[in-house]
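@channel anyone free to eyeball this complex?
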Amino acid sequence: LAKTTQPISMDSYEGQEVNITCSHNNIATNDYITWYQQFPSQGPRFIIQGYKTKVTNEVASLFIPADRKSSTLSLPRVSLSDTAVYYCLVGDSGGGYQKVTFGIGTKLQVIP
Amino acid sequence: NAGVTQTPKFRVLKTGQSMTLLCAQDMNHEYMYWYRQDPGMGLRLIHYSVGEGTTAKGEVPDGYNVSRLKKQNFLLGLESAAPSQTSVYFCASSPSANTGELFFGEGSRLTVL
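replying in thread with the prediction:
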């Protein structure tokens, strides 16, 4: 299983862009990179998923370099409501998530 | 849209008691999962199901049993609760399509005294 490494915590001021980088050196050819967000007392929520280059949606952007050994989740102009734990997952979710593991994530604290 | 619903949301048990957590999804998903989340441990997969009538062990299955008699329901049972099973339990579901996403319930907080 591909192992991921991401910072345990990050602080950011409101209105700033936040970039959270995840390392996944042994990513497999079929693996996708997926990010989830979890607020206190709630289940994780899917944010974005990608395979290579750049993916953007209404919530975030995901940058994946050509070697795919890392990825960066970018949150534009964060607000207090973006304070949450962010999980980077790597795995082949085609056919199910039973082989995709959640680490401890990155706890993002947005400061007024 | 209800999505994934877990019941109960809170429960306190005494050591040795049994209980069942119910997960229901209304999205016609094939895959369902039970995770537990403990401080500093992330989410760990307990059991999962790839379709009605199927179940399989995840990363930490000991002390738990599951059943998937109906496609929309996935039950997690504790036959003899232990303090080590004090945790927040999350149910999730996903479609069978490639590169799908997980849809989580809001969690069930279980305390075993």
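from a first look: The mean pLDDT of chain A is 92.
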